Amino acid sequence: MSRALAVLTAAGSGTRLGARGPKALVELGGVPLLVHAARGLAEAGVAGIVITAPRDHLGAFASSFPGGRLSLEGPRAGDGAVEVPIEVVEGSPASRQASVARGLAALPALGDRCGLALEERSVVLVHDAARCLTPPAAIARVIDAVAAGHEAVIPAIAVTDTLKRVGERVDEGVRPVVATPDRSTLVSVQTPQGFAWGALRRAHESAAARADSESTAATDDAGLVEAAGGRVVVVEGDPLALKVTTPVDLALAELLLSEKARLNNFIR
User: Fold this and answer.
1) Rounded-to-integer distance, Cα 46 and Cα 143, Å
2) 66 to each of 61, 160, 228, 234, how far by Cα in Å?
3) Under a CB-based contact definition with an 8 Å cutoff, are residues 228 and 202 in contact?
4) Residue 234 has what DSSP assignment?
5) 3-state secondary structure of 94
6) What angle do CA 13, 106, 118 make, to 5 degrees?
7) Cis amide bond preceding 181, omega within 30
8) Coil, helix or strand for 125?
9) Is 215 in a helix, a strand, or coil?
10) What's the mean pLDDT when you consider all of the chain?
11) Tens of pLDDT, residues 159-185
């Protein structure tokens, strides 16, 4: 059942990945990261997706979804194909926060196309194309928690590394340790993050001035809700929702995808 709309952020440059173009268009198993991420959202029950893309690549992004739709075949589709509307909009070069805001501005019209008018408690997801292998089951957990009444929901996994807080550099390549946080109270946050439409819209509106620069912009949308006084809760994430940022990440994602048949119970 279609029960959510989503903004899929995909305006990253791909510099750290060593890509010649946008990271979201880098192929994984012959398919762009962007399409993998959109499929995961669709399989989890998302009715329509707004994608934020770099200005110079809007056409390439749109061509990844012929007819402005994603055709889905599989468990959700039943005996026939499901067509999920896709809207590609120009992201912002200023910050991720600014790009998401542009995506949110396009959501009401997309909702009308999908027959899913946005209301105060409507479920809206914000996802990163770089987390292209996020399992639909993990996405569904986020949707379920928002639908149950939580205004902001983030998927997360336990921190397994020992973390250190460090101070300013004291010598070339040397920084002092100033604290060792208790990792039992820490989690590593993933996407998609889920929100009640009203709470997310107001959080972005109240923090709009921060979006003009990466130095002041929020690194995730839950942080905006938290800053506005909202309550953010955590649900179980998934190790497969890794963020593809470097060539090593891409190689790992390729390995996971090639083993999809064996890992099917985890990926779906």
Assistant:
1) 9
2) 10, 42, 39, 36
3) yes
4) E
5) coil
6) 130
7) no
8) strand
9) coil
10) 91
11) 999 999 999 988 888 999 999 999 999
